[in-house]
Each structure stands twice: as C-alpha cells, then as structure tokens.
Specification:
This protein has 519 residues and is an alpha/beta fold. Helices cover 49% and strands 13% of the residues. The site of 5'-O-[(L-methionyl)-sulphamoyl]adenosine has 18 residues, from helix 1, helix 7 and strand 13.
C-alpha cells in the first residue's frame, strides 16, 4: 500500500459564522482526501476550529458572553457547514479540548528544554484581527494616516511581559527548508517567504499576560500561549501527541497542510521552527491557496456582501458548488464567484454535457436493450473513444490532481465528456435501432463503459452525483476507486453475470437563475 497521507486544513476562527473562504478551503481539502483514498492511500483528514486568543475574547465580551459560550456556538456552525458540504474529515478538532491543552503544553515544554524560550518584555505592534505581531517597517498607511498591518487590519501598540521563542536561531535552517523543492507551493509564495526570512528574523513573542483566554504556559503564572502557538499544535494533537500512538507513528509528519495565502508565514516559518526546536519531523508540504472573492470583491460585513455557504448549498446543491469552485479557479490563484457564474458553469458542463450524456445513453440502454449489459464487439470508433476517455480518467485527471491542479484535471475530463457527446451524435444509435441493432448495442455499451470511467474519475469533486450515477449502473462500492480504471476485465465480469440496469433517474437537473439576477 502507498504511503499514509495526513492532510489538514487551517482551523477556523469561530468568532463569526463561516463564509465562502472557509467553504472553499474545506472543499479543496475534501477533494484531495477523497482523491487520495481513491488512489488507495490510508488518509487521515483533520479540520476544526481555533478558539483561543484576543480576537475571540473581545468578540465574546462584545456580545456579553464568556469566550467558551461563543466558541461552542460558533464552532457548531463550522461543523454544520462541513457536514452540508460533504466534508469527509476524520477528526474535527477544537482547541478548547483538554487533550489539545496537554499537547500544546508538551510542545512548549520541549521547546523550553531545547533552550529556545526566555522571558522578556514585548513592545510593539499587534493586530488582533490577524492575531499577529508586526514590525514598524511592515506597516502600511491607511486612511487619515492610520497605521495598518500589511493585511490592512488595525494594529495596536502592545507592551507586556512575554515569553520569547528564539526564532532567529533557525534562520539558516528555514532558508534551506524553504528552498527544498515542493515544501512550499505554489512557487510564487516561496519567493515571498524566502525574502521575509532572508531579511532577518526577530525572536517571536509567544505568550500573553493581558488576558487569560488561552492555553496556560506551564509553570508560568499569568501567561497564556500566543494563540498561534497553540493553534499550530492542533496538527499534532489530532494524532495523540505527545503519546506514542498508532496514529502518530503512522501519520506524522503531515503530508500536506492546506492553508490560505494569508497564513503561509505561520505555517512555513514559525511552525517548522517550533518543530525543529522540539526535535520533531517537519511537514512535507504546505500549499497556500488563493482567495475567493464575491464578484471580484472581498466579502465583508461593511460591504454587506457576505454569503452564507449554507445558503449556496441550498440554492445550487452541494455538488454543483463543489464543482464550480474546483473548476472555475486555478488552484493557488484568487478567483471570483457569482450566482450567474455558478449557474452557467454547472448548466453547461454538468447538466447539458455530462448529465445529458448519462441520461440519453442509459435511457436508450434501458429502452432499446432492455437494460441488458452483454459482451460486444467494438469498432475502431468505439476503441478510439474509450482510449480517449481512459486517457483523461486514468492519465490526465489523476496526474493533475496529484499536483493539486484541479481545474486542469477537470478540464481534461470535460474534454472527454464532449468527445463522448460528439460520438453519440455521429453514431446516432437511435437510427441504428432498425438498420443495425448489433451495432446499436456496441455503441450504447461503449457509452456505458465511458460513463463508468467518467463517473469514477470525477468522484472526488462531486461525490454525491458520481455515486448516484454509479448506483444507477450497478458499480459496487468496493470498485469505486482509481485502480478499478485499470481493471480490464470488469466489463466482461458484469456482462457474464447477467448484469442489467434500469431507466435512469435525473442526477444533473438544470439550475435556474432568479430573474432579478439575470442581468
Ligand atoms: N485560525 C487561523 C488559522 C490557524 S491554522 C493553525 C485562521 N483562521 S481564519 O478563520 O481566519 O481562516 C481560515 C482559513 O480560511 C485560512 O486558511 C484562510 O486563508 C482561509 N480564508 C479566509 N478567507 C478566505 C477567502 N476569502 N478565500 C479563501 N480562503 C480564505 O486564519
């Protein structure tokens, strides 16, 4: 069996409800998890919520709640979003869990034992929204001369006693790590991080004393850990660290931390430095994906354009939303969505192309052949079609998905679907019914084979719809993986077992756009 695969998303701040960006990251991670499982790998997929820190504490105070009450309520919305999006996580972690406190304290103790922590006084800028410290030189000027973080968020001057982590000590090793091919993708993010680290690293403030909503620092009264120290540790907690568990041995180091581009620094500078300090193996890859914008604009409360991902699921259906997001945006880059774009893309490619192919082919098999799947002689045209479908489904799609180039893989898949529809039009099986029924059977059964391959290949992206198609054509659950695409005997086995299929039910209905938005 291939290497185990440990995949994580960022854990979300539950200081508000989930938005499209959270949904995007969860969906992309889920596509990766399902893809790797279908490749036969043992996958562990973790996601969750990041519940400590000043941002949470202040939000709770604003609402007259204790932080834990806010965290409990909001975290449940993230979990509900994951369920609505069909996210196949193995572990949903919450940083308020006692085992997470234990793991964070164990990592802290290991860094302390390495001589990497010392007490001092922090004086500098802090952005509560980013939960990040910034140097004067990194700040940008906002309206009216206000100082803002490079992310455009307000910063406040902070002075307090704090523990520091000797980040500066790891500069050389971090540069070497960042230069390791594949460690940080896409490439463009690597140059940015290399510039940051090469510019010189200051030691990092890693505890706070002005509030207490966090993981207590071991043996240091009044100090809670800087929220990013405990947040990053979640990746270890979920495997049982510091205990030597089976999961730990099997899955650490992580194969892939999937995160947004705004938090690449935390994952490729601070996190590896903490791990180096504690003597732990480093994650194999961090991928910084792009941002999803609403008609080209960042969603924000002040613009009033924040969309609840649950509403999108309700309106378009979970698989349409998943398909759109993975298809529309080159993974790694920013992208935009709008109801029209979702409707147009899904109607053109899922309803009118793949859906139509499935509907008309399976209906003709049910009607003209009594649903009987039997051995047949292929012609040159049939062989050519199946070779092209196999090439997309067994070759290009898995190859590009392995490299996280989802839109490219889906495009190759889509081209194969177009070719199938062209083949139907050229072969015109409805006309063969009277003139050459044997040939009609060969055409329809060729399509049956193609549909099975196409449904298998796209399954990580649209699991519900792909399974509905595979159910209709009677492909067993155990055969719904990529190895099945290389199995050359499956069809003969089905045919010889006297396999039959019924008339298809619609799986890819067209989406409607309310008139008001038609413009
Ligand atoms: N809590 C930290 C992560 C800690 S990981 C140890 C955090 N939380 S967040 O809720 O602000 O963001 C969670 C993830 O969503 C991040 O990877 C972030 O980049 C991503 N996104 C937030 N807005 C986004 C878009 N508009 N589009 C795509 N992803 C974006 O950061």
């Amino acid at each position: 069996m291939a290497d185990p695969f440990y995949l994580t998303t960022a854990i979300n701040y539950p200081n508000g409800r989930p938005h499209i960006g959270h949904a995007y990251e969860a969906i992309a991670a889920d596509v990766i998890a399902r893809f790797q499982r279908m490749q036969g790998r043992a996958v562990r997929f973790q996601t969750g919520t990041d519940e400590h820190g000043l941002k949470m504490a202040r939000k709770a105070e604003e609402q007259g709640l204790v932080p834990r009450a806010l965290a409990d309520e909001m975290s449940s919305y993230f979990r509900a979003m994951d369920e609505a999006l069909d996210i196949s996580f193995d572990r949903f972690i919450r940083t308020v869990e006692p085992e997470h406190h234990r793991a964070s304290q164990a990592l802290w103790t290991a860094m302390n034992a390495a001589g990497d922590l010392y007490l001092d006084r922090y004086e500098g800028w802090y952005s509560v929204r980013d939960e990040a410290y910034y140097d004067e030189g990194e700040l940008v000027e906002g309206e009216g001369g206000a100082k803002l973080s490079p992310q455009g968020t307000p910063v406040e001057w902070t002075v307090e006693e704090s523990w520091f982590f000797r980040l500066s000590k790891y500069q050389d090793r971090l540069i070497e790590l960042l230069k390791t091919p594949g460690f940080l993708e896409p490439e463009s993010r690597r140059n940015e991080m290399l510039a940051f680290v090469s510019g010189g690293l200051r030691d990092l403030s890693v505890s706070r004393t002005s509030f207490d909503w966090g993981v207590p620092v071991p043996d240091s009264d009044g100090h809670v850990m800087y929220v990013w120290v405990d947040a990053l540790t979640n990746y270890l907690t979920g495997l049982g660290y510091p205990d030597d568990t089976e999961e730990w041995r099997k899955f650490w180091p992580a194969s892939l931390h999937l995160v947004g581009k705004d938090i690449v620094r935390f994952h490729t500078v601070y996190w590896p430095a903490f791990l180096m300090s504690a003597g732990l193996p480093l994650p194999r890859q961090v991928f910084g994906h792009g941002f999803i914008l609403n008609r080209g604009q960042k969603e924000s409360k002040s613009l009033g354009n924040v969309t609840d991902p649950m509403a999108l699921v309700e309106r378009f259906g979970v698989d349409n939303l998943r398909y759109f997001l993975m298809r529309e945006v080159a993974f790694g880059q920013d992208g935009s969505y709008s109801p029209e774009a979702i409707v147009n893309r899904c109607n053109a490619e899922l309803a009118n192309s793949f859906g139509n192919l499935v509907q008309r082919s399976l209906s003709m098999i049910a009607k003209n052949m009594d649903g009987t799947i039997e051995r047949f002689e292929t012609s040159e045209a049939d062989d050519a079609l199946l070779a092209q479908v196999a090439n997309a489904c067994r070759g290009e799609l898995p190859r590009t998905f392995e490299a996280l180039a989802f839109s490219q893989g889906i495009e190759a898949w889509m081209r194969a679907v177009y070719t199938c529809n062209q083949y139907v039009d050229e072969q015109a099986p409805w006309a063969l019914r009277k003139t050459d029924p044997e040939r009609m059977k060969a055409v329809l059964l060729t399509l049956f084979v193609a549909i099975r391959d196409l449904a298998l290949a796209i399954r990580p992206v649209v699991p519900g719809k792909a399974d509905a198609v595979l159910d209709m054509i009677g492909i067993a659950s155990a055969d719904r993986n990529y190895a099945a695409l290389a199995d050359t005997d499956w069809f003969v086995r089905l045919a010889d077992a006297g396999h039959r299929i019924g008339p298809p039910a619609p799986v890819f209905p067209r989406l409607e756009l309310p008139e008001a938005e038609d413009a």
